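Please predict the structure of the following assembly.
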Amino acid sequence: MSSPLSGVRVLDLSQMLAGPFGSMILADLGAEVIKIERPGEGDIGRGMPPHYFHGESVYFLSVNRNKKSLTLDLKSQEGMDIFYRLVKVSDVVFDNFRPGVVEKLRIDYESLQKITPRIITCSVSGYGQTGPFKDRPAFDLIIQARGGIMSYTGEPGRMPVRMGAPMGDLTGGVYAAHGVMAALYHREKTGQGQRIDISLLDSQLSLQIYRGLYYLYAGEVAQPVGSGHVSANPIRAFKTQTFDIVIDANTDKFFQELCAGMDRKELASDPRFITRADRLKNKEALYAILEEVFLQKTGEEWLELLEGRLPAGPINTVDMALSDPQVLARNMVVETTHRSGEKMKLLGSPIKMSPAGEPRFTPPPALGEHTDQILKDLLDFSSQEIRDLREKGVI
Amino acid sequence: MSSPLSGVRVLDLSQMLAGPFGSMILADLGAEVIKIERPGEGDIGRGMPPHYFHGESVYFLSVNRNKKSLTLDLKSQEGMDIFYRLVKVSDVVFDNFRPGVVEKLRIDYESLQKITPRIITCSVSGYGQTGPFKDRPAFDLIIQARGGIMSYTGEPGRMPVRMGAPMGDLTGGVYAAHGVMAALYHREKTGQGQRIDISLLDSQLSLQIYRGLYYLYAGEVAQPVGSGHVSANPIRAFKTQTFDIVIDANTDKFFQELCAGMDRKELASDPRFITRADRLKNKEALYAILEEVFLQKTGEEWLELLEGRLPAGPINTVDMALSDPQVLARNMVVETTHRSGEKMKLLGSPIKMSPAGEPRFTPPPALGEHTDQILKDLLDFSSQEIRDLREKGVI
């Protein structure tokens, strides 16, 4: 049993969320991901408020498990020399600098390829390395908004809202990991390196999928629908006496099951609600009835009555989701040991495979935790040389 | 120049959205993806209302470009024989059946491995192949709700809403593509096949990221914040005289730029708004002022004034997003030629790399469009044999 990406070494210059989420996917799959961090300060995510564990930002902890940390001052000549030597024994250089920075630092694909023709570089940026807006700063909310999906997230007639998960950032990381893996496979076949250019905005656009084509082919501009569905009913969230629930009872079969499960069989033969078209036409009348009925029992009681009959489930709050029996059965909450000796919990990996087996989980690294080990093992530095570099502030 | 996954052959049994989105990522990267579809009917996504192009569902078109289609009745012995022969010359078998179906059809990993030890299988399902809920049906809304992110998507004090993009489905496809690529790389190194088990619910959980850990480490249960931010201000959407815009002016620097750009410099020295803490404490007062100010100009005017100074941008509706200059400059809207001869538009791929270059885009296949070609080229069937199979309804 070995991890799928075992033997792959990634030099990871990325910080905060989008980049580190992408390199975490690679790390969870077994790549050796070495964070290259500025001496003293490191990944700016390390300081992110508001929650800390043993002095480390929980935000940082969430996306940096399974990685190593090496401090290196890329603005010093000695730091650059070490970086180039590391590139020679690595497969991937991964960054989320603004466009132009890697060229300025002379760690762009063209420069690194001269040292190691097989190198793969992957840059994640807000708008990509090309195009009229490439130099603009981009944060998650701006990307969600410009990408178009925010415009149809929310309630009809009200202001749009953001997707609760930071999809503007995360999606870029996801595609970066795709790019790296495709390039690694390709390199095995051809020996060729690759330069990957991932934009958060492109990534967001790719999520438009059929909504984008509905506009291109039919001129339909998607509008917010709350928890509902523009052309199917009832698919929606409802309040109960306890937690909120969702149902998807659009088909005749599921609608009949819903009525049976609610002990309101007469609704299924009500002329207003017999066909899908009827239910869509008389949406508000159906909503009014269902809203009232669902308020008569608890969420637990409704799910007990409905879950066997049709697609239905709780709107889990975070605490509920993280203790959901299915979530726990699938190891989506895992444990590792922090270097303080204390146990720490992390989210699991959704990529389950065998014979490779469940990923290992090592705790997120302290700043520079692996500097000495990496310099000794990979580049044959002596303890004295390492002490000198540390004194000069290079590491 | 060759595509990164060129030479990889995928037998794709998946339908609708989650599976086809994942196999589309592989196809865009150059894998030969062969949809295996039921004769006569095919992928049920082919019939999805409400929009059609030359009789084909636009929903279907959106996730099936770059694929081939072969019809095959897996319930007939001859169909199964052909499938097994195809497995011998393929790398990946990809499905999104409910758990148990591949075993029943005898196309599960264990069965296929006997034929082709190097085979990689990937199953995408609502809840995964294991756990107490594995047999339940799951649709996008149910997954968004159970996964927890919906609970904090929406406005404070109102019912949660769904993320506008079908993230419950899409995220499963995304991780399936990761799993397949990692397994392909691993197989190059070790010769070993792999069984991949992707659950939409696991995938959703992985997007909880720091919000999940905020609960595990600090007991914080994420709440809906509209377009705003729980611990930073002003980061939000605002109405203008035309379209809505978003700004991210939380830091002192960006807040001062915002005030300057609005020609309201006095706000930056207003004792209620000087520090980040002040602005968070006096959020409502600041909102009231900004809401009024933003209503005094158009969206175009505000972005002209603000975009150079701080992260800001439009809330693009779908039509705006698909004509955004950066989106067009990055080839996120591409064109190919439908077999009718008519030009057709598709969304581009966010995974840009060189020297591999931009992906090719071939139109989504007609049902069984490549049956003859594949049977002849890969399995040496004669025209007569193919006619016989067609007559018997096997293909």
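The mean pLDDT of chain B is 96. Chain B touches chain A through 145 residues (CB under 8 Å).
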